[in-house]
């Protein structure tokens, strides 16, 4: 999900559910799978046979492919924003890198792909790989995450872990390796089940209603204008799992611009900080903490005074195989807070 505000990044947990699947089993060179017909973001995706020369246009798509053991079916990758998951790095290093950012249409065509995949709409812009419709005219099927459709009306409106798993299943189906999707999903679901253990036990603030979970502010970036989680993104998926409340769940945008006065009024129990690698104002988790502690308005927030911060990789807030880590880290913090 590269929305207006989000870039991709990394989970650092070596036990990542797709990681072990990607490292364990190479893709089969022969596959009896027949044609696959999908409707993806309102467009047909017709694949006559399991692709052998796939191109991924950014890191989330690349890591899903690698987690499914499909490195030997890849003719190229691009747009790496953070270190690749450690367990996937040996496979990643075997895949040609087409561009530091998005490859041009010419670079994509030069790779002679038989399948193109991205989880970001921006990858299919005219100044990037070109539209999926144009690729289809060339006989190249192209897949896009259902959370980031070209037409917002076609998109899945709320991120769920089941929705992420459906995308993994789609890619595994296209490549004729459904059993690998089952393995990746089992591992990720196991991690989610473990993360769920502490979510609902954290103590909510005195202002919360009866039986309400703790209130979380998901602070993504910016200091003069903070971007925070509204409704529909990965924070909703984590909140549903752990029984927490999003402090800005009433805002019908995934990552709206907020303001500190309104944040102070809502006084969240816990602040979740996205740790971004871009190097901009308020990107790193430490820069966020420093700002919150010195700003006259935010320094008085209960969560700031008590140091109730959770640091999560910014990349885990994109819907991907990395999102499980956000649930793990928040769940662990809530268990600690409840003690």
From TrEMBL:
Secretion signal span: 1-23
Keywords: Signal
Chain residue ranges for the region called Disordered: 189-208
Fe/B12 periplasmic-binding domain: residues covered: 53-339
InterPro entries noted in UniProt: ABC_Transporter_SBP (IPR050902), ABC_transptr_periplasmic_BD (IPR002491)
Family: Belongs to the bacterial solute-binding protein 8 family.
Protein name (Swiss-Prot/TrEMBL): ABC transporter substrate-binding protein
């Amino acid at each position: 999900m590269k929305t207006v505000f989000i870039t991709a990044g990394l989970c650092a947990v070596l036990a990542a559910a797709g990681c072990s699947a990607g490292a364990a089993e190479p893709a089969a060179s022969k596959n009896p799978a027949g044609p696959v017909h999908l409707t993806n973001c309102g467009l047909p995706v017709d694949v006559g046979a399991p692709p052998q020369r796939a191109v991924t246009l950014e890191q989330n798509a690349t890591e899903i492919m690698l987690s499914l053991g499909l490195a030997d079916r890849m003719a190229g990758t691009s747009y790496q924003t953070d270190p690749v998951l450690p367990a996937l790095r040996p496979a990643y290093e075997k895949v040609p890198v087409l561009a530091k950012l998005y490859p041009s249409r010419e670079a994509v065509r030069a790779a002679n792909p038989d399948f193109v995949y991205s989880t970001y709409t921006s990858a299919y812009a005219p100044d990037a790989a070109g539209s999926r419709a144009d690729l289809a005219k060339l006989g190249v099927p192209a897949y896009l995450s259902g959370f980031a459709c070209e037409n917002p009306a076609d998109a899945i409106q709320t991120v769920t872990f089941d929705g992420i798993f459906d995308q993994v299943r789609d890619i595994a189906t296209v490549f004729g390796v459904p059993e690998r999707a089952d393995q990746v999903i089992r591992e990720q679901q196991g991690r989610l089940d473990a993360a769920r253990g502490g979510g609902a036990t954290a103590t909510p603030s005195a202002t919360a209603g009866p039986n309400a979970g703790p209130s979380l502010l998901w602070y993504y970036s910016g200091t003069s204008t903070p971007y925070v989680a509204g409704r529909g993104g990965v924070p909703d998926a984590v909140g549903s799992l752990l029984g927490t409340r999003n402090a800005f769940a009433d805002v019908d945008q995934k990552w709206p611009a907020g303001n500190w006065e309104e944040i102070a009024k809502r006084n969240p129990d816990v602040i979740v900080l996205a740790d971004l690698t871009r190097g901009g104002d308020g990107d790193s988790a430490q820069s966020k903490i420093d700002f919150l502690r010195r700003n006259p308005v935010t320094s008085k927030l209960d969560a700031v005074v008590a140091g109730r911060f959770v640091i999560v990789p910014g990349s885990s807030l994109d819907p991907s195989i990395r999102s499980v880590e956000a649930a793990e880290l928040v769940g662990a913090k809530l268990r600690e807070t409840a003690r």
